[in-house]
């Protein structure tokens, strides 16, 4: 029966567009699954570089500006082009077979705005106007949001602004209040489209103030740019707060006419005394009627969040075998490592979710929720408490006195321990678990895949009378939380050399059988090569903000914070291949078929918040053509530790030569003296 089910799913997929990657998440529902089978677990080890495209930012932008960039883009494959945006919101279309530029649009954003979430653009959206005549300008459109809060519509074939949309192709979005500085409010993730509507969220600077900008989601007519609706996720009755915005990617069910929003916490993140109650519909999966903005349903994953446990991941829309029949669902992974599986029509949990008691006694003026929701069927993707037994240094078997002291003096009662003035261990950290890279789902094998990060933050509340003039130590994020009785400080719980306090691995890909409620495998992803001195490559795993792409060929592709694209076996998690990148690819991979060849593409521009090297490339790999092969020398060098080994060998040879010359010189002196 299982084989028959897989065959039926495969046949169903055949009627879908099999060659393209038309949406940020591969499809409207963000499955990140491609039915392409040319690249398989048997031949992926032979992949070669097909092309590399450089945006030119590294040469054209000042170094101090490039240090504030995050290259997190996932390209689309539409209109016979690979189309993507740069951290500065330039939209570029390139030839899918050669990587040659076809067109380029520059919105000319200011380099002086200092956006709160740095210069970043995770992707663009594509939409086709079925009312327009074939060949008409802007029948096929690209929508992009910008760091300076514009929504822009471009002709997908030429890159020219669509004159009939907004004001000559763009709409300026107003935050609705005076900003503290121009970069407090920006757009970082791709818009979504459905039923003639384009929907866009926003990213807002955290921990600045209680009365922060509200997290309104906005919808516009995809043809004219006329406003259609606005939706504020936060119910403001007796609540003084802003945010609850949607900075993460959204999903669309075109057939049902629903758009799914992953919402964030209200402002400020770590003290909620002025927002009593559960803060609906913050920290929730929210389903809206895409044509009207009417609320269909909402499910909250955290009540009264004071841990920055917002929903950073795209809700994944798929069809699963629950054990009692097939069902259309929404899968929502979280920073805590939970996986919520909800009915797509009602928002009700498919499997039980329990309300469990959590630590209490929050900071003065705080009113914590006594319980939090815990899914019971699908196990957490990572551990949710750090103890003294978990402390480890960079090297196996080596502890850390600093980390042991930190744990001993901090409040640490497990998941949902409230922030405190003594310092609270928040594990998983505020950027841990599953992040904006989101999950991926293989509908054939019914397996969920997600990248997770293992690390802890120390959150310290600073009384208001001590916050004025507070000078945060290096590596500490400081927020005034104006209007609250406490400011805040956030820092990675780290060893004496700066590595996470918890033992490796610090980044993994996890595979989960949802029906069985069973984790199938963990695979460590990433080395210390691009982060450690001298390029030493320890197999520690790296924090993984980005996600994976999976194929019917049985391969899972992912980047990391070292400069490699990796391939893993879908069934076992065994690493099958790695391809060298110019700098780390902290972005989601994608794949497409062009002229009979399957390509796998990743943005490789590094990540300034992650401390990696910075670049400006998009790189594609494919199977070798006749006469092509990767040289043995490249295979030896283009892998973690390869360059360090070459440098060490060169240093050893140089030292040997120097010692030989010194010995010879001294010998000659002795001979002359004799």
TrEMBL record:
Gene Ontology cellular component terms for the protein in this record: membrane
Q: Name one Pfam family in it.
A: PQQ
Question: Which keywords appear in this protein's UniProt record, sorted alphabetically?
Answer: Membrane, Oxidoreductase, Signal, Transmembrane, Transmembrane helix
> Does the keyword Phosphoprotein feature in the UniProt annotation?
no
Stretches that traverse the bilayer: 644-663
Q: Which residues form the Pyrrolo-quinoline quinone repeat domain?
A: 21-600
Question: Which terms does the record give in the GO molecular function aspect?
Answer: quinone binding; quinoprotein glucose dehydrogenase activity
Q: Where is the signal peptide, in residue numbers? A: 1-20
Q: Domain of life of the organism in this record? A: Bacteria
**Sorted alphabetically, which InterPro entries does this protein's record hold?**
PQQ_b-propeller_rpt, PQQ_mDH, PQQ_rpt_dom, Quinoprotein_ADH-like_sf
Name the needed cofactors: pyrroloquinoline quinone
Q: Which PANTHER family match?
A: QUINOPROTEIN ALCOHOL DEHYDROGENASE (CYTOCHROME C), QUINOPROTEIN GLUCOSE DEHYDROGENASE
Family label: Belongs to the bacterial PQQ dehydrogenase family.
Specify the protein name. Answer: Pyrroloquinoline quinone-dependent dehydrogenase
Identify the taxonomic lineage of the organism of origin. Answer: Bacteria, Pseudomonadati, Pseudomonadota, Alphaproteobacteria, Hyphomicrobiales
């Amino acid at each position: 029966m299982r084989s028959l089910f897989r065959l039926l799913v495969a046949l169903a997929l055949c009627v879908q567009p099999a060659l393209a990657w038309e949406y940020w998440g591969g499809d409207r529902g963000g499955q990140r699954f491609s039915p392409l089978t040319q690249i398989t677990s048997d031949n992926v080890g032979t992949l070669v570089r097909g092309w590399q495209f450089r945006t030119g930012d590294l040469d054209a932008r000042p170094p101090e500006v490039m240090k504030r960039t995050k290259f997190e883009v996932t390209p689309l494959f539409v209109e016979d082009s690979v189309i993507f945006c740069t951290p500065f919101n330039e939209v570029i279309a390139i030839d899918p077979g050669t990587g040659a530029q076809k067109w380029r649009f520059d919105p000319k954003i200011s380099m002086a705005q200092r956006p709160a979430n740095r210069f970043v653009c995770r992707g663009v959206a594509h939409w086709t106007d079925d009312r327009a005549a074939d060949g008409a300008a802007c029948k096929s459109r690209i929508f992009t949001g910008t760091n300076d809060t514009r929504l822009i519509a471009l002709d997908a074939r030429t890159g020219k602004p669509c004159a009939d949309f907004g004001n000559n192709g763009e709409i300026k979005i107003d935050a609705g209040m005076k900003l503290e500085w121009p970069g407090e409010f920006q757009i970082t993730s791709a818009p979504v489209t459905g039923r003639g509507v384009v929907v866009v969220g926003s990213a807002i600077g955290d921990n600045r103030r209680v009365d922060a900008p509200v997290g309104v989601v906005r919808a516009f007519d995809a043809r004219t740019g006329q406003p259609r609706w606005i939706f504020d996720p936060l119910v403001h009755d007796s609540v003084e707060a802003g945010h609850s915005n949607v900075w993460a990617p959204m999903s669309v069910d075109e057939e049902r006419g629903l758009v799914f929003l992953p919402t964030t916490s209200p402002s400020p993140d770590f003290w909620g005394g002025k927002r009593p109650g559960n803060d609906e519909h913050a920290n929730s999966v929210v389903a809206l009627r895409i044509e009207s903005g009417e609320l269909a349903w909402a499910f909250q994953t955290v009540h009264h969040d004071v841990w920055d446990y917002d929903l950073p991941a795209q809700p994944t829309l798929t069809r699963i075998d629950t054990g009692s029949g097939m069902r259309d669902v929404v899968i929502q992974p979280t920073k805590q490592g939970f996986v919520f599986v909800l009915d797509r029509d009602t928002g009700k949990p498919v499997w039980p979710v329990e309300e469990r008691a959590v630590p209490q006694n929050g900071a003065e003026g705080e009113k914590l929720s006594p319980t939090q929701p815990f899914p019971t069927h699908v196990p957490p993707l990572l551990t949710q408490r750090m103890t003294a037994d978990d402390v480890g240094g960079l090297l196996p078997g080596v502890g850390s006195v600093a980390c042991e002291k930190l744990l001993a003096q901090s409040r640490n009662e497990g998941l949902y321990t409230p922030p405190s003035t003594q310092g609270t261990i928040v594990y998983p950290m505020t950027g841990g678990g599953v992040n904006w890279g989101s999950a991926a789902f293989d509908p054939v094998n019914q397996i969920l895949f997600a990248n997770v990060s293992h690390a802890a933050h120390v959150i310290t509340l600073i009384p208001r009378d001590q916050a004025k003039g507070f000078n945060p130590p290096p590596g500490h994020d400081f927020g005034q939380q104006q209007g609250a009785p406490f400011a805040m400080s956030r820092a990675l719980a780290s060893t004496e050399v700066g590595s996470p306090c918890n033992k490796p691995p610090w980044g993994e890909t996890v595979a989960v059988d949802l029906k069985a409620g069973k984790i199938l495998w963990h695979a460590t992803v990433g080395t210390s090569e691009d982060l450690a001195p001298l390029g030493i490559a320890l197999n520690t795993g790296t924090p993984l903000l980005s996600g994976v792409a999976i194929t019917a060929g049985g391969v899972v592709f992912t980047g990391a914070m070292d400069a490699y694209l990796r391939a893993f076996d879908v069934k076992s998690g065994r690493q099958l291949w790695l391809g060298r990148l110019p700098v780390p690819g902290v972005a989601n991979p994608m794949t497409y078929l062009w002229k009979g060849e399957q390509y796998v593409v990743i943005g490789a521009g590094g990540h300034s918040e992650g401390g990696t090297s910075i670049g400006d490339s998009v790189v594609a790999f494919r199977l070798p053509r006749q006469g092509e092969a990767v040289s043995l020398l490249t295979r030896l060098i283009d892998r973690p530790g390869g360059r360090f080994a070459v440098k060490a060998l060169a240093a050893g040879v140089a030292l040997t030569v120097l010692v030989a010359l010194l010995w010879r010189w001294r010998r000659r002196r002795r001979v002359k003296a004799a």
